[in-house]
Design goal:
The chain is α/β, with parallel strands linked by helices. Helices cover 39% and strands 18% of the residues. It is built from twelve helices and nine strands. A seven-stranded mixed β-sheet has the order 5-4-3-6-7-9-8, with helices on both faces. The protein has a two-stranded antiparallel sheet with strand order 1-2. Helix 2 runs antiparallel to helix 4 (67-81). The longest helix has 17 residues, at 113-129. It is elongated, with a radius of gyration of 22 Å.
């Protein structure tokens, strides 16, 4: 295969480079930048430019690009070389088998957060299947991924999705409309619980809060520390600011016997469980481990 080099600016004429050539080049460039998923990223970007799927790249490896496609691919490769996340470059990320629009105003949905959805559904589905119209509150909804996943798997549940960021709520609204859940997923703007009257209205509260200690953020991958919204990551000095502030408040919003389902960072479970115990509001506390055997989800049931 020929050695490929891009000029410092896109050329005025299209070089006769095939899909196979461009994948080879982009993979080399990404690997040189320390990107572990170099080949996958190259495939995702080229498939995005061509408006097709990755399988097409292997069906038609000798296909060449138009001038516009080549220039677009060149631009996206440059962005990825700067370590901008693929999800922001192409504008979406799959979550719960759904395409979720994202931009730099929202956290990119993580696979481990699907465990938060699974855990919530295990408590909600039995009631939903009986026709009960339970209310769920999601705090810090961001892109709306969790709320939309909950709506997808239920028939009657009503989800109130709150966020402090107007820009994030615009992204969430786009996703809610795209997937057709505007009748059961409602957005509220405010600083965590401020949009909600402190009345026991909810059967469940789900939260994926910021839980990374401030001092650790600059040690994270460039894709995270340089691009994702810090407010969605920074959990304060020890990563526990959200839990410390809101564990005493959450019971005021829950119906008796209601549930709090919350995501945690690695190594935080014992301290967070102790906070819940000291509040004396909860009858049951348990945790669920993720696929890496980290205690990822805490489940608390109100007395």
């Amino acid at each position: 295969m020929q050695q490929l080099q891009y000029p410092s600016n896109p050329p005025m004429t299209v070089p006769q480079l095939s899909i196979a050539d461009l994948l080879h080049y982009a993979t080399q460039q990404f690997a040189a930048c320390g990107i572990e998923s170099a080949r996958l990223d190259a495939e995702l970007l080229l498939a995005h430019v061509l408006g097709t799927d990755r399988l097409h790249l292997y069906r038609e490896p000798q296909q060449t690009l138009t001038q516009e496609q080549y220039a677009h691919f060149y631009e996206l490769v440059n962005r990825r070389e700067q370590r901008e996340p693929i999800a922001y470059i192409i504008g979406e990320k799959e979550f719960w088998s759904l395409p979720i629009a994202v931009d730099r105003h929202v956290l990119i949905p993580r696979p481990e957060t699907e465990l938060l959805v699974e855990t919530a559904l295990s408590r909600v589905k039995p009631l939903d299947d009986q026709g009960c119209r339970v209310r769920i509150l999601e705090l810090g909804t961001g892109s709306g991924a969790v709320a939309i996943a909950l709506a997808k798997e239920t028939t009657h549940a009503v989800i109130i999705a709150a966020d402090r960021s107007i820009a994030a709520l615009r992204v969430a609204q786009k996703n809610i409309l795209r997937h057709g859940y505007s009748r059961r997923v409602h957005l509220m703007c405010g600083d965590w619980l401020c949009p909600c009257a402190e009345k026991p209205l909810f059967y469940m509260i789900v939260v994926n809060p910021p839980y990374i200690p401030t001092c650790e953020i600059d040690t994270l991958a460039p894709e995270i520390k340089n691009y994702e919204p810090r407010v969605a990551l920074d959990g304060g000095a020890d990563g526990l600011d959200f839990y410390r502030s809101w564990i005493p408040v959450l019971p005021r919003l829950l119906l008796p016997g209601g549930w709090v389902i919350v995501e945690m960072g690695q190594g935080q479970a014992s301290r967070i469980i102790e906070m819940y115990r000291q509040s004396h509001h909860y009858a049951k506390l348990s945790t669920i481990k993720d696929y890496a055997s980290c205690e990822r989800i805490l489940i608390a049931q109100l007395r």
